[in-house]
Amino acid sequence: MMSPWFISRRQALKLGVAGLAGAAAASVGDSALAGMAQAVEEPHWIDAHVHVWTPDTAKYPLDSGYAVADMQPASFTPEELFAHCKPVGVDRIVIIQMSFYNNDNSYMTDMIARYPGVFSGVGIVDHRAPDLAEKISVLAKQGVKGFRIHATGAEAMKWIKDPGMALLWKIAAEKNLAVCPLINPGDIRTVDTLCAKFPETKVVVDHFARIGVSGQIDRDALLELCDLAKYPNVYVKTSAFYALGKKEAPYQDLIPMIKQVVDSFGPERLMWASDCPYQVQEGHNYEASIALIRDAASDFLSASDKSWLLRGTAEKVYFA
């Protein structure tokens, strides 16, 4: 039998964990099986959306629009995050710049540097800054792989004719970075217009475009989100389950929405994320979030599909 070390990725996905463990046993015998099986079974999942912050506001001051009282919880450092994510096999994380810090990305970039290979980042920049290109270049060298944009309604519509926003999308395409819109369902058409104008730009839509935040899954909005699949560079985060639909674990009321975006985009353009620390507050927990994809969606997600949602897509976009 071929050594498991020479099984192709495609063969590995077909075999699954149990199959690889069996291949390992046949090749090396029982004495080494335990160690090899443990290595094979490590999932190495990626959480594609987490916020971190520190109570050390002297070293990392808050933006003028925020007060210490706004930090809820008062602290959510990488070390506090690891206590939630490592037990379920998540060992890489995409940090999303926290609004507390606005355009000062230093805490995020310092954490990326402190834990090499563990973190990637999505920053925030002022798209109207005269030195926008330079700022993006510096942040990209520090491990930032994308830039969050956030507005709703009329403010979001201004993006379409904003020269600074146009420059941001162009630079992102040139540098293989992502633009990451945090929007409401009513803003999906605005993003559609921008995707049509900048088809080469990689776009990652956060949290299903917040479809379901009202408590109901708006079918028309979901169809508009799925229509973005016509742009090959658009990705969607299946995330923030605590905030959508019934907002109650085990979140299985969200399964039809997940299936529809899988059918539209394919697993290769979807990525799971927790949106911590909010996923671990008010009766919610980390395990319930990942279990919705890992376990509850098995009726329509194969092992290969889950691998894409829980690791492969985020790896391609944020860690390549």
Description:
The protein has 320 residues and is α/β, with parallel strands linked by helices. It is 42% helix and 14% strand. The chain has helices at 9-28, 30-41, 78-85, 106-114, 132-141, 153-157, 163-174, 188-197, 219-227, 255-265, 286-296, 303-319; strands spanning 45-50, 90-96, 119-123, 144-150, 178-182, 202-205, 234-239, 270-273. The chain has an eight-stranded parallel β-sheet with strand order 1-2-3-4-5-6-7-8. α4 (106-114) links the parallel β2 (90-96) and β3 (119-123). The chain starts with 8 loop residues before the first helix and ends with a helix. The model is unreliable at 1-29 and 33-39 (pLDDT under 50).
Give a quick precis of the structure.
The chain is of the alpha/beta class and 320 residues long. The protein is built from 12 helices and 8 strands. Helix content is 42%, strand content 14%.
Per-chain topology:
Blueprint: H1 9-28, H2 30-41, E1 45-50, H3 78-85, E2 90-96, H4 106-114, E3 119-123, H5 132-141, E4 144-150, H6 153-157, H7 163-174, E5 178-182, H8 188-197, E6 202-205, H9 219-227, E7 234-239, H10 255-265, E8 270-273, H11 286-296, H12 303-319
Parallel strand pairs: 1-2, 2-3, 3-4, 4-5, 5-6, 6-7, 7-8
Helix pairs in contact: 1-2, 9-10
